[in-house]
């Protein structure tokens, strides 16, 4: 089931579908996802979109409009900076690179994610769910 950054609706009376749940969970981490990709190398907007889609086997996409709003916000906050790439290999592309401040925020967000996941895993007793 492919998810996007928009909720995909409810499934039955018990709650949302797993795709909508995954999209909601990921939506709150768009900044961290983008910063994580930029940690690896500078990238242009559509390249980041494709990297997210490819990393999830096509199961999750963040809308391009959402990503471009994210790039603008991250740049305004000093977490990324942009520059224009070389036009000799096609159209002019705006590249983004992570700043030292962006790296620090990324590390903090990952630490918070790991701590949160540990708590949720313990509350859900994840190690026993395969027997259910």
Automatic annotation (TrEMBL):
SUPFAM superfamilies: Winged helix' DNA-binding domain
Pfam families to which the protein is assigned, alphabetical: PadR (PF03551)
Transcription regulator PadR N-terminal domain span: 34-105
Transmembrane segments: none
Official protein name in the record: PadR family transcriptional regulator
